[in-house]
Write a structure and sequence with these properties.
Structural class: alpha+beta
Oligomer: single chain
CATH architecture of one domain: Orthogonal Bundle
Order of helices and strands: HHHEEHEEHEEEEHHHHEEHEEHEEEHH
CATH class of one domain: Mainly Alpha
Shape: globular
Radius of gyration: 21 Å
Distance between the termini: 55 Å
Helix content: 25-40%
Strand order of the largest sheet: 5-2-4-3-13-10-12-11-6
Number of strands: 15
Largest sheet: 9 strands, antiparallel
Length: about 375
């Protein structure tokens, strides 16, 4: 089994992310590659490497607001905090983390009219002494970064991280963000139950056929195709697709959640633009109403120090104001799809009382010493 991807592999992965994995022939045409060659390579890649193809939902058009949560655990209760956060029905990713603090980091998609209750949910874990503190960043939807070939040397078949070149070019970057990173004016619900169900399945596997989804719902594949084309795609509920792979490897790499802060919107936009084609960035999101940017970063461990050194240079020159980060613990990480089961009659069911009740029960059962204080 090969230990790493070659340039052709990376080009295919980049293309599948950019153009979507549902039409391999179309991707091959875009890459100017014989379709059969792409299929054979893809078959080899899926058998030898971890690959996952997911749909990226534009949650804004389903009435959902993204919340990035950092929660510092009370010492000794790190796993309990993780399990408490899971009691909220609207999490999509959760992980233990370390670095700035020991605790958890999570991403939630919260119905827009229940944001205050969600913040109360987080505060409850502090009141119960499971968490020392928590912080929530309300964000735009996230922009998936498809770049795989940038900074990969075709001749040596190795990575070349050109950090100095990167920071020198930032001031000349574009001053316009993709729509996913622009503060939305509102959070309309543009989909129905069938749309949400389809998206749930495509989040698990973006190559799932309409026929298979139709069987789950007991409807025709033609109806599923109609909803996909005329609702999900035409109304902009589907942001795009994401390919999950480990092109730097896993054992010698770090996955990090960063928040970058700037003293002007222009600097934020230029910095974000500089990251849209970099292979060490997984996703980006803008913090609503602030000159702050969220980044999910994937780096070989030796390059992490060089990346932080580059950020320090940007601070010294006045381009970057500050940054903070935590390191994801891959041994304690979970993901789930959009919470389709709580979407009924065109609206989301957010049961705040149930969430609070569940964390109290969990603390009472697993840490009675906290519950009695």
């Amino acid at each position: 089994m090969p230990s790493k991807f070659d340039y052709a592999d990376l080009r295919i992965l980049e293309g599948l992310g950019k153009y979507g994995p549902r039409n391999v022939t179309g991707v091959a045409r875009k890459l100017d590659m014989p379709a059969e060659t792409l299929r054979k390579r893809l078959k080899r890649l899926t058998s030898q490497f971890f690959l996952r193809f997911n749909a990226n939902i534009y949650h804004t058009y389903l009435g959902l607001k993204k919340a990035l949560v950092f929660a510092e655990a009370a010492p000794g209760y790190e796993d309990l905090l993780f399990n408490c956060l899971r009691q909220n029905d609207f999490w999509i990713s959760l992980a233990r983390c370390y670095g700035t603090f020991e605790g958890c980091v999570g991403v939630f998609t919260v119905p827009n009219d229940h944001c205050v209750e969600f913040e109360q949910f987080l505060e409850e874990m502090v009141k119960l002494a499971v968490a020392r503190k928590s912080q929530v960043f309300w964000c735009t939807c996230f922009q998936a970064i498809h770049s795989r070939c940038k900074w990969f040397d075709r001749k040596s078949q190795t990575w070349d991280f050109r950090w100095d070149e990167w920071i020198k070019k930032i001031p000349a970057e574009d001053t316009e963000l993709p729509y996913t990173l622009v503060d939305p004016k509102d959070f309309p619900i543009k989909g129905d139950y069938i749309d949400v169900f389809i998206l749930k399945e495509l989040e698990k596997d973006a190559t799932t056929s309409f026929a298979d989804i139709a069987k789950m719902l007991g409807v025709s594949s033609q109806l599923i195709g109609y909803h996909y084309r005329n609702h999900i795609v035409e109304r902009g509920i589907l942001e795009g697709f994401e390919v999950t792979d480990f092109h730097f490897g896993i054992a010698d790499s770090n996955f990090l959640y960063f928040v970058f802060r700037f003293d002007s919107a222009e600097k934020l936009v230029k910095f974000a633009s500089s990251l849209l084609d970099k292979p060490f960035v997984r996703t980006l999101g803008k913090v609503l109403g602030q000159n702050a940017l969220y980044g999910y970063i994937y780096l070989p461990k030796p390059e992490f120090r060089r990346f932080v050194d580059s950020l320090s240079k940007l601070i010294r020159t006045g381009f970057l104001q500050s940054y903070s980060y935590v390191i994801q613990d891959l041994q304690k990480s979970s993901r789930q799809t959009i919470s389709y089961e709580y979407f009924r009659r065109g609206t989301w069911i957010y049961d705040h009382k149930k969430h609070i009740h569940n964390i109290h029960n969990l603390v009472k059962q697993t840490a009675p010493e906290l519950h009695t204080n």
